[in-house]
Design goal:
CATH superfamily of the domain at 7-166 and 203-228 and 289-303: NAD(P)-binding Rossmann-like Domain
Number of strands: 13
Oligomer: single chain
Strand content: 15-25%
Number of helices: 14
Strand order of the largest sheet: 3-2-1-4-5-6-11
Shape: globular
Order of helices and strands: HEHEHEHEHEHEEHEEEHEEHEHHHHH
């Protein structure tokens, strides 16, 4: 094919992709907010399924098309998926919900979304999962995520499942919560276990870039992609890094995870939100890593290092007021 014809074909394909409507569920969450902003900045048509409360106070600087409703609202789902080419399914209850919330949001909600997407002949569904997810997992969060993956694979729709390591960035629900816990106690930090669990953190912008790239990468269709950042890090080293970057020194006390799970259960009864939840400990139960080169080889992304990135937004920051605001903020409602 002549070079000029290839250029024309590429431009036509690019314009076609830019005109395809993308539906995002969970667009008001940590990952969803960043993804919506990125897609709108790229000039892509974006539609978000949002609750009535969040529709009144949208978190995005630019406004996507909004459909008010939930994954349990069949009429809202019908309107949401009509004319959509790709669904990016991010709705979840992993950082705040109990077991019944996980089942309702992750499983029942996903079944409803799949049924609506099939009826509307949606082209593909892209969803996020966690490294280590499997229906046979001993830990509820990883088991539910594994069951969600099976629903997507058996849906009859083209799909891409992205299993990521812990996602971090300003305002995340894991690394930032470590910083908040350090600010809450001026003397010591209770570390789950001995801190030997190996994690594979990935920066939010790198994950968003991987999702955006997957829209164009044919090789990611009908596959499960496992990705993380450029390095592995133990929980103990992660805590030490956060203390070093924030300038917050505490005695780190290894504590049996089952005791911390009990403390978290009591805390959630007292405060509207807890800095640590049962799902938080599920992700710390075993090592969760992907091959280091996956994100480069499969998505063409050179991810950012953990400590270097923390220095851009966490250096010397006091998380005391952030912790107070988070603790009294209203907990999200299940679907």
């Amino acid at each position: 094919m002549p070079f000029t014809a290839k250029i024309i074909q590429f431009l036509v394909s690019l314009m076609y992709n830019l005109l395809l409507m993308i539906l995002i569920t969970g667009g008001t969450g940590f990952i969803g907010r960043h993804l919506v902003e990125r897609l709108l900045a790229d000039g892509r048509p974006v539609r978000c399924l949002v609750s009535e409360r969040l529709a009144k106070q949208p978190p995005w600087p630019q406004m996507p098309e909004m459909i008010v409703g939930t994954l349990l609202d069949e009429e809202a789902l019908f309107h949401a998926v009509t004319g959509v080419h790709t669904v990016i399914h991010l709705e979840n209850a992993q950082w705040w919900g109990r077991m019944r919330d996980l089942e309702r949001v992750e499983l029942v909600g996903t079944r409803n979304l799949i049924a609506a997407a099939r009826a509307a002949r949606v082209g593909r569904i892209i969803t996020l999962s966690h490294l280590g997810s499997t229906p046979a997992a001993a830990y509820p969060l990883l088991r539910i995520k594994g069951m969600l993956e099976e629903l997507i694979r058996a849906s009859g729709l083209a799909y891409t499942i992205i299993r990521s390591g812990l996602v971090f960035g300003e305002g995340d629900a894991f690394v930032s919560h470590i910083a908040m816990q350090l600010s809450a106690n001026p003397l010591f930090f209770l570390m789950p276990g001995r801190g030997e669990v190996i994690l594979h953190p990935i920066y939010i912008d790198d994950l968003v870039q991987a999702i955006v790239n997957s829209l164009e990468l044919i090789d990611t269709v009908d596959t499960t992609q496992e990705i993380g950042g450029p390095e592995y890090i133990t929980l103990g080293d992660m805590i030490s890094t956060v203390m070093r970057v924030t300038g917050t020194r505490r005695f780190v006390i290894p504590t049996p995870p089952y005791l911390l799970r009990g403390f978290a259960a009591i805390y959630t009864r007292v405060m509207p939100r807890s800095l640590i939840t049962t799902q938080w400990f599920d992700l710390l139960a075993t090592n969760h890593t992907a091959q280091l080169g996956n994100i480069i080889n499969n998505f063409g992304i050179h991810p950012r290092r953990f400590e270097d990135t923390l220095l851009t937004y966490m250096r010397g920051r006091n998380y005391w007021t952030t912790m107070l605001r988070y603790s009294v903020r209203r907990k999200p409602r299940g679907l």
